[in-house]
Amino acid sequence: MTHQKTSQRLISLDAFRGFTVAAMIVVNTPATEEHVFAPLRHAAWNGFTPTDAVFPFFIFAMGISLTLSYGKLRAKDGQTKRVLLKTAKRAVLIFLIGVLLGLFPQFDFSEIRIPGVLQRIALVFFFCALLFWYTTWKQQAVIGSFLLLAYWLAMTCIPVPGVGTGILEPGKNLAAWIDSLVIPGKMWQGTWDPEGILSTVPAIASGISGMLVGHLLANPQHTPERKVSWMYLAGFASFLLGSAWGWVFPINKNLWTSSYVLYTSGLATMGFASLFFVIEILGKGNWAKPGVVFGSNAITAYVIGGILPGLLYAVNDWYVQAIVDVSGRPEWPSLAWAIFICVACYIPVYLLYRNKIFIKI
Question: Residue limits of the Heparan-alpha-glucosaminide N-acetyltransferase catalytic domain (predicted)?
Fold first, then answer.
């Protein structure tokens, strides 16, 4: 783990990434899973809630950031071997942190879970970095489209032993079958895992969608206003196409379906375009300071958000018994706990931000 001093940063991207991380912390840390408002839950299977947008939004932001930072890196240092070695080391480190975070605080290795959020981020980051280094933006767009089409055909046309063809039920689909054969240790849902192997393939396409926006942002031939117009147009088209594809390949976060990729990438593109317009063009960014602070050390904030509830488990148990369970509307104090965790995470990342330190894991 290293740290670096600040350099010129795209404030709207930091804000977008930061608000996404804050949302990740809030939806992951209610006082009790039994009392959560419906929009703060993932869809049980097919369908979509605001919570289902959080993870792909982060991957989308990572795609933008990768394109902008690696573009500058390639301009300064074209030594591919050294860059890719650092990329691989960073991906491995993020993956291992994700595994260790899943073991915290008991560190019971008999319950080890290999897949996870940071693990998927690490894999998507690595493969997207390879694509950036060896392909053009047009080739990336073609590859992303191919991945989505191939995943759709695989999930709906390849027969699964003991299940059948085209079945997309929990634990009874091609992705779950592959995971049951390949993934060691524990899976999140017993017989299947939402961050499994096959469903990581379309997640790479989510990263590519961010990369394409990054290429647009880096293009000096377009004015900022035109960039916003293109983002809104492309985002809305992706949103519509994802919605239509969902009629035959349901929008499903657990399977990370192709329709889900286009649907969430469209929303992410339009959401980022709005922030870019307000912050970068209108120059009104003071209100986004909390997001910028979180976004400047996004993975650090996420890791703290994963550790803190384990450290406070005794306080959490008391809080649930003394306040949540006796409340007339227990969803509110449960949400208050999640906001408390989020604010607690903000303090250390704010100190890092104030000292102009950005931790690169």
Answer: 9-154
